[in-house]
Request: fold
Amino acid sequence: MPNKPTILHIALQSPFYHCFDYLAPANCAPATLQPGVRVKVPFGTKERIGVLLSVDHKTELAISKLKPALAVIDKEPLLPEKLLQLIHWTHDYYHHPIGDTIFTALPKLLREGREVDDLVIPLPPINNDEATIPTPTTHQQKAIDAITTTSGFQPFVLDGVTGSGKTEVYLRVIEQIIQQKKQALVLVPEIGLTPQTVTRFQNRFSVPIAILHSQLTDKERLHAWLLAKSGAAAIIIGTRSAIFTPLKTPGIIILDEEHDQSFKQQSGLRYSARDIAVVRAKQENIPIILGSATPSLESLYNVKRKNYLRLHLPERTGTATHPTFNLIDLRNQKSHAGLSETLIQNIRKHLTNNGQVLIFLNRRGYAPTLICHSCGWVAECKRCDARMTIHQQPKYLHCHHCGATHPVIKKCPQCSYEQLSPLGTGTERLEETLSTIFPDYPLTRMDRDTTRKKNALHDLLKVINNNEPRILIGTQMLAKGHHFPNVTLAAILDADTGLLSSDFRATENIAQLITQVAGRAGRAEKPGEVFIQTYNPQHPLLLQLIEHGYHKFANTTLKERQAAQLPPFAYFALLRAEAKNKDAVFEFLETIKNATARHPTPHPSHPAPNPRHPVLDTGSTSTRSVQHPKNTMDSAVKPRNDAEQLLKNNTVSESQLL
Ligand code: ADP
Ligand code: ZN
Ligand code: ZN
Reply:
């Protein structure tokens, strides 16, 4: 139909679920209008950068109301067709606005409209000087063969304890991928992307490697992204957001420590990089390796259903022995800021024997709350009624639930009593206590607060690897994949937060932590001991875990999940509503409850139409924010002015579908 105008459907970064319709720019050659190119468009009184999604002759608006786009920025699509499909899937599965989903996948400079055609991208340095490459063990060889003889999509769960040689398997597999002139995308936990990891890859391969992590400058990030897109980088190593990196010739995706919670993005576009990785591998028709010493229950369930293939590395390489477990019954024991007498004695013993000790407490800050001893008042967050955590360096109150902050309160707002005290123990307080008990031993704390600054984590790891601190205190962060050859004692101060939490994944997470921590103790010739403090020493899951190991525990827990109809046996959505006015919250939630009652839950354990379609992390959180301009409290998610105009008619109060 020659007379019908061409309509461009364009995604703009906005809180809207739909895309925006424009006419083609004046004098624009139709061939330049390829989905995936960026387009400059007028929006309100400003110009915005958008991504072209599709071109046709349809629009629901009056043609006379449409404005022409201003210009096409890219000569070829920035986002290849398959990646665009993946982004569509992500937008749909996580109920997140399409524009915001696309823009999450783009480096900042590209979001801002930076042209790429005449950028000169320096190739990363190549150094290749690994002296000896170990000969694979029989188990490793079996895994390598299984993966490299696969053609097409197949997820593998590489299940092997820490130090069993999983990384060595990745390296061998990647070697073959490179020989086929294809690319390998390797995702690691945030904390796992250390210079040691990168060096290990660089020393092995004489090919350019692109690194993508959160501490790059905008320019470095753009370069790494373009190296991947152009195919110049044969290996791409990154943290969760690297799952959206365009690849010219994808050959394999590898996720190391696939159970790690940092693969979930918990704000903005909420997604599980592990699940998106599986979907991407399926789309690209390539294998994917999910490696872990403690695979997630979702992945183990997929193994049971024969969606994923399990490859097992049962032994540690070298001489490392398995540590012994000790439960410390906290009932009727004196404790000093969460440390029992028994534990203190054992720490002393290991320190005098020249061991290094690791102490885990999954609670950062000084103390989890501030209490008035006169009237019982506790410091609660005004925004969300969680308790406010006390931080000492610097001094302030911080809600770890919603992020709100408040200056330290000196006087009880209820009874004016002036001696408010911290209640409970966080890592800062633990550090203070341990340095008082063991003043002669250097001590290091690793948590989100001590690693926030650029390079802080790398510097800390260097200090630790030089064996400087004898006592290491940390949150979960400390448990991940690092090699601490001198650690002989590892302690978990509070197993009960995991055992008694209302989060159905808490037991899984504490079991993973305990198993990973055990993997940290006694790696070299020194045997290790693990201490677990609990008020529930008879807890059956805890006993099963330490007596029979993670897999027995995982089996039991999967059965419990099935009985309770929890993921991965059912889909799960968490709804969170937020508004200044309580009634609006309840009214909204009630409406949703009534609406969902009409839809029976689809059941992932029923045979799927496509037997090879994996059961995804159905408990993944995704966010749908519908914001009422008047009720908006959080300036970070406040809609832009243009958007506000369009939202005026929106009657839904601020809410989040998680
Ligand atoms: P994981 O990734 O499972 O923690 P790694 O691949 O890092 O394990 O291996 C742990 C250590 O054992 C590394 O120092 C590695 O070089 C070494 N290693 C791995 N495979 C072998 C092997 N087949 N023979 C000897 N040493 C090995
Ligand atoms: Zn009081
Ligand atoms: Zn809060």
Remarks:
- DSSP finds 18 helices and 30 strands in the chain.
- Residues 605-613, 618-658 have pLDDT under 50 and may be disordered.
